[in-house]
Amino acid sequence: MAETAESMVHEFSARQIRDLLSLAAGSGDEREWLVEVADRDLMESLLSEMCGTNVESAAGLIDSVCSPDSPVEVLIAAKDLAKSLAAKVEEGARLGAVTLLYHLSIASALAYHGQNISSTARRIVRRRTG
Fold this sequence. Notes:
Layout: H1 2-11, H2 14-25, H3 29-37, H4 40-51, H5 55-66, H6 72-86, H7 92-113, H8 119-129
């Protein structure tokens, strides 16, 4: 499954991925800040500021989340980091940056490893099967 998903991911344009992530984040005002954060330099800066690290560390985090070579454990850690950061911000571009990091982590795990790391999806499956 990972090979099929990976080949499908490479067929999407940047605009299609941005639109899918915008839909995942909701509608209305949220769409604007998510599109704004699609600017990698801005995302690196915002993540660096929120994590208290330098921009290079934030760039490494984004690279890790987008790399097919990153282990699932790294993607889970990035997703969990995004969730903890999201709890500390209320709106705007910072929330967009952590939301994007969160969704990129989940998408990478699914596309590159064929694993769903979303706890929400696991709860839904448990309810249906249990």
